Amino acid sequence: MHYFEDDDLSGTAVIGYIPSKTEAIKILQEMNLSKNIVNHVLAVSRKAIKFATKISAAPVNFKLVRIGAILHDIGRVRSHDYDHAVIGGQIIREELKFSEQLARIAETHILGGISKEEAKEFGLPPKDYFPESVEEKIVCLADKYFIGVQQVSIEQRFKNWFARYGENEFLLRSKKRVEDLEIFIYKLMFP
């Protein structure tokens, strides 16, 4: 078992400020993020840290994973649509003045990432929103294992989305992206 302190900066170098876990949770509470979403992000954070501690094939910044997971849904204070990820990135980057890496985690956690063309279709600023860093990929994947605080499989999570939005091409592509992300993370955990 790998143990680490809250200020552990092993792995990816961080540029910019990353708050402590206590600070991050306080910010969510001060912004009046619902208790359900706060509980969700804490569940995602625990899962993400479990992934991070098992990864041996790449360096991982545990603090970036933990705090990125806690802040990944901060945009839900203003929207519950796809744009909550972009809004979250803006809040982290422009209002809180935190690390760009945290902003990227928020922006890239939706589904398995969104292409520039898909972003345009959803009215988001036109750019690719794919998780790139190991930390972004860990948080993105950990998030897909939860509906609220209930842990589910990737299959269950997408069945829920298919029931709500139909088994459309976009969600089928997203499911494939998440499955590929899962394979990538598992290969880092069990090389």
Task: List its traits.
191 residues, mainly alpha, Hypothetical protein af1432, two-stranded antiparallel sheet, 9 helices, disordered N terminus
Q: Could you walk me through the main structural features you see in this protein, from its secondary elements to its overall organization?
A:
The protein has one domain: Hypothetical protein af1432, CATH 1.10.3210.10. 58% of the residues lie in helices and 2% in strands. It is built from 9 helices and 2 strands; from the N terminus they run H-H-H-H-H-H-H-E-E-H-H. A two-stranded antiparallel ribbon has the order 1-2. The longest helix is centred in the last third of the chain and has 21 residues, at 169-189. The chain is globular and about 40 Å long. Residues 1-9 have low confidence and may be disordered.
Summarize the topology.
Elements: H1 21-30, H2 35-54, H3 62-71, H4 84-95, H5 100-108, H6 116-121, H7 134-144, E1 146-147, E2 150-151, H8 154-165, H9 169-189
Antiparallel strand pairs: 1-2
Output mean pLDDT: 92
What is the radius of gyration? 15 Å
Q: In one word, what is the shape? A: globular
Give the C-level CATH assignment.
Answer: Mainly Alpha
Can you write the helix and strand succession as a string?
HHHHHHHEEHH
Largest sheet: 2 strands, antiparallel
Number of helical stretches of at least 4 residues: 9
CATH topology: Hypothetical protein af1432
Distance between the termini: 17 Å
Stretches where pLDDT is under 50 for at least 5 consecutive residues are: 1-9
CATH H-level name... which superfamily?
Answer: Hypothetical protein af1432
Strand content: under 5%
Strands, total number: 2
- Domains (count): 1
Structural class: mainly alpha
Do you know the CATH architecture?
Answer: Orthogonal Bundle
Q: Portion of residues in helices?
A: 55-70%
Strand order of the largest sheet: 1-2
